[in-house]
Write a structure and sequence with these properties.
The chain is an alpha/beta fold and 370 residues long. It has 12 helices and 12 strands. The strands form 4 sheets. Strands 4-3-5-6-7-12 form a 6-stranded mixed sheet. A two-stranded antiparallel sheet has the order 1-2.
Length: 370
């Protein structure tokens, strides 16, 4: 990152003082969103897991990235861009780099590599709880992601000064997309947590744990949150193939129950912390809308993955020996768990400018002005 001598970094100055810049997404902004900080799982991982030596949850190989601008795999679990990339475009920012791409082997953030326009802490396999990554051996759980963010916060304070750093962070967006892996873990037939908690106890614990982490982020300057609910996880190819191609009703039911708790949590936070604003994205409803009326979105295949092998292309994941569909734009799912670039673009568009049916109490376009 280019920096000025004895002063704030150049990218900070540019993001604060350039007005009326027209980005290729067609959105005109004036210092509205100086940074985008991303927390979550493989839905928004931009390559953090590439730097985890033992992780089995990686996407740094073909056929991932076949439609990315470079045509190469980046660590995104997609044929191209993911929702975080599209949202960054919508608010006029570059895609946030993976946090681990900016740190040394000792996991210390180098001051010369810090970025104020955003960082992604998201990690494939991550959950709200520590340990939800056990199936994949290694990921960065949300607790650790927040710890990494605290280091970034401290460095911003050091670089910009406390007041300027707080101003920057108060205008930035904090995107949180997580929870699916916690639920997948609970309903895994070999799960131990299902023996410790009832489903209701488990989703309640997910909500309370997330609340404490969001409060930590607030204590570190975060004021504008974009929070996604969990999608129709019982309808992904990995779940359908276990149920004669039909969705798993139990997984979907508890996804909705978790989402209800998450919305209540956000309302509670707003009453407790009046200086925060948020946009909640009803991913479940948006995804279900695509499943129920795919023709409205140019989608024709809602059950099978584009990339993989076997039943619904979900017996073997998207690895180099797998085959992939020629038309990725008409598929909802890229692989056995993740949406295609097209689907991610649809969801990001709803997050940004969606109606109250899908975003409340406001969409992101309104949030940046709040």
């Amino acid at each position: 990152m280019t920096t000025s001598i004895n002063g704030p970094p150049l990218s900070f100055i540019v993001s604060f003082f350039l007005c009326a810049v027209i980005f290729r997404s067609g959105v005109v902004l004036c210092e509205s969103v100086p940074g985008l900080y991303i927390f979550g799982d493989s839905l928004v991982d931009v390559g953090n897991n590439n730097y985890l030596a033992l992780s089995l949850a990686k996407a740094n190989f073909p056929h991932n990235g076949v439609d990315f601008p470079t045509g190469k795999a980046t660590g995104r679990f997609s044929n191209g861009k993911n929702a975080a990339d599209f949202l960054a475009e919508k608010v006029g920012l570059p895609s946030a780099p993976a946090y681990l791409s900016l740190v040394s082997k000792s996991k210390k953030l180098s001051s010369s590599n810090a970025t104020v326009t955003g960082i992604s802490f998201a990690s494939g396999g991550a959950g709200i709880f520590n340990g939800t990554d056990e199936l994949f051996k290694q990921s960065i759980p949300l607790t650790k992601q927040v710890e990494f963010y605290s280091l970034v916060h401290d460095q911003l304070v050091q670089q910009l000064g406390a007041a300027a750093a707080q101003t920057h962070l108060s205008k930035s967006l904090f995107l949180i997309i997580i929870g699916s892996n916690d639920l997948f873990g609970y309903f895994n037939k070999d799960s131990n947590v299902s023996k410790q908690y009832t489903p209701q106890q488990y989703v309640d614990l997910m909500v309370s744990t997330l609340k404490s982490l969001i409060k930590k982020m607030h204590g570190l300057g975060a004021r504008k949150f974009v929070v996604s609910g969990v999608g129709v996880i019982g309808c992904c190819p990995a779940q359908r193939k276990q149920n004669n191609t039909e969705c798993k009703a139990e997984a979907n039911y508890w996804s909705k129950k978790y989402n209800d708790g998450l919305q209540a949590l956000l309302r509670e936070l707003k009453s407790e912390l009046s200086d925060i604003n948020y946009s909640y994205f009803h991913l479940y409803d948006a995804m279900n809308g695509v499943i129920q009326h795919p023709q409205n979105y140019g989608i024709t295949e809602i059950k099978a993955a584009c990339c993989g092998l076997g039943n619904l292309k979900a017996d073997i994941p998207c690895i180099p020996v797998s085959t992939f569909c020629t038309n990725r734009k008409n598929h909802l799912f890229w692989d056995l768990y993740h949406p295609t670039e097209t689907a991610s673009g649809i969801f990001a568009g709803i997050i940004y400018g969606g109606s109250p049916q899908f975003t409340n109490p406001m969409n992101v376009e309104q949030l940046v002005k709040a």
